[in-house]
Every structure is written in C-alpha cells, then in structure tokens.
Design goal:
The chain is of the alpha+beta class. It has six helices and ten strands. It is flat.
C-alpha cells in the first residue's frame, strides 16, 4: 500500500500481540437496521477488510434511548491502515442508503491487566498475520522437541509400585522453530500445557486429553516464537523483519543441544500465567 498524504505514519512496526491503542480502532455508527446482526457483520467485514487485516469486528445494537440501528467497533493491526480506512469511508454510504460515520476511537475501554501488559496473539492469529504480510510461503515452522513432563502420580514413592490414581496430571513442553525464508532469520519458542484427567480408568478419555495437551503446547510454542520478531511495514508497502526485545539465549543453542539437554525438574508456572489470554470483545 502506498504512503498516504497527510497520514500520521509513513513507516510503522506491527508486532504479534493483541493490538491496543485508539489509533488502531475505528468506531462506526449510523448503521441502519437489517434482518440480522450477522448480515451487518458481514457487510462491515467485507468493506473494511479491503483496507487491511482486521483483528476483530464487534457489532452492537444502539441503546434503547437512541434511534433504531447499530454501531460497530473495528480493530486493525495497523494504525496506518486504520487511518486510511477512516479517511476513505467516513460520510460514505457504502452498503446502505445513508452515510456512515466513521471515527477513530477517543476512549480506550481496556482493563488494567491489558494496560499493564500487551498480550501475545494466539497461534491462529499469528499465522493469519504472518500470511498477510509475509505470504503463505514466506515462513515455515517445525517442532524441535515435544516432551511429556507429566508428574508420576501413579507411582507410590515408598513401594515404587504403580497404584491406581484418582486423576492424572498431564504436562507437555514443546520447542518450535519458525523460519522466515526470504529474510534468512529463524527463532524458537517454548510452550507448556497442563491438563487433568479426572477419570484415569477411561483410556479413550485419557488419550483425548493427551492429544489436546500436545496440541496446546505446540500452539503456545508457535505463538511464543512469533513474539521474537517485529514486522517493519514501510510506507511503500514493503515489509522487513527485526528482532524484538523478547529474543532470548535459547535461539543460540543448536538443535542437538536442545534435544539432549532438555530436562525439566521444576517449572515456575507464574511465567506462563498470561499465556493464551487475549482481549475478550
């Protein structure tokens, strides 16, 4: 996308975190009633997706004291594209017979926890963002290690004999590598998942819990890997990559070192307490 004359941004950084800030959020009002909110949602999504990738769209009914109709809150990943969308669509009819009012949000209704720490995107959102800016063939991922670190709840410490547990604690750790093919860069992420199997006597249920724990660990590892890089979007539409402050020493280890030295004795779960959380609209 070419640079916009009068735009407050010509080059910006897009990270793999839940977007925050008024400059990425549009407030759309004067939306006429339709048969369903889903129809309005589709119209909003189709119209504003033309300007850039959207993180979220929320459609709400007007207050009872106001005229019948709806309003929408649209969140972009890019402040530049949000600015362009507002500039082009404001006071335009678009998908209805009367003009819409499109404004940048002036109030940020964000919980304190989100103000203190910008939360990472989940793995699906990370892939969506990477595909949009880098292309489907611009990056790849692979699992370096996926290890079961479950507690041995089924073993009696005195007799060292297996006993029937009431429930099993399932834990997995995953190391994922993401490569950015056109930039000669790669980074690694860690993910840990935990689940409890209440009925240890049901092997099918246990297998399902095991599979979900493995999937959750790989998803968290993928998300963690994307936190290590930043997308630098230039005014002419070109994209480059740079390291974020979250890059750590694990990216310097060889794969053999990670495979042979991966030992988990005690894990502080406080560092993962915010994993998987995202803004709830």
């Amino acid at each position: 996308m070419a640079a916009i004359e009068g735009s407050p941004l010509q080059t910006e950084i897009v990270d793999f975190k839940v977007p925050t800030g008024n400059n990425k959020t549009l407030f759309v009002c004067n939306i006429l009633p339709r048969e369903s909110e889903a129809e309005i949602y589709d119209c909003i999504l189709k119209t504003f997706s033309e300007f850039g990738l959207l993180y979220s769209v929320r459609v709400c009914r007007n207050a009872t004291v106001a005229e019948p109709g709806y309003y929408a809150v649209i969140k972009f990943y890019s402040a530049l594209k949000a600015y362009r969308a507002q500039n082009v669509t404001n006071k335009q009819c678009l998908f209805q017979r009367i003009p819409l009012k499109v404004q940048m949000c002036t109030k940020q209704r964000t919980m304190k926890v989100f103000q203190e720490r910008q939360l990472p995107l989940n793995s699906n959102k990370c892939q969506e963002l990477a595909n949009y800016y880098l292309g489907f063939n611009g990056w790849s991922s692979r699992i370096i290690a996926l290890q079961n670190i479950s507690d041995t709840d089924g073993c009696d410490e005195n007799t060292q004999e297996l006993v029937q547990p009431e429930r099993k604690n399932i834990k997995y750790i995953c190391i994922m590598e993401v490569k950015f093919i056109n930039y000669g860069m790669s980074c690694r992420g860690f993910g840990i998942s935990e689940a409890f199997d209440q009925d240890a006597t049901d092997p099918l249920n246990f297998a399902l819990k095991l599979g979900r724990a493995q999937k959750s660990a790989t998803q968290k590892a993928l998300s963690d890997a994307f936190q290590k890089i930043l997308l630098v979007v230039l005014g002419n539409g070109k994209v480059s990559l740079q390291w974020s402050l979250e890059q750590d020493e694990t990216d310097c280890f060889t794969e053999e070192e990670l495979q042979t030295q991966l030992q988990v004795n005690d894990i502080s779960w406080s560092q993962f307490e915010h994993e998987g959380q995202e803004e709830i609209l």
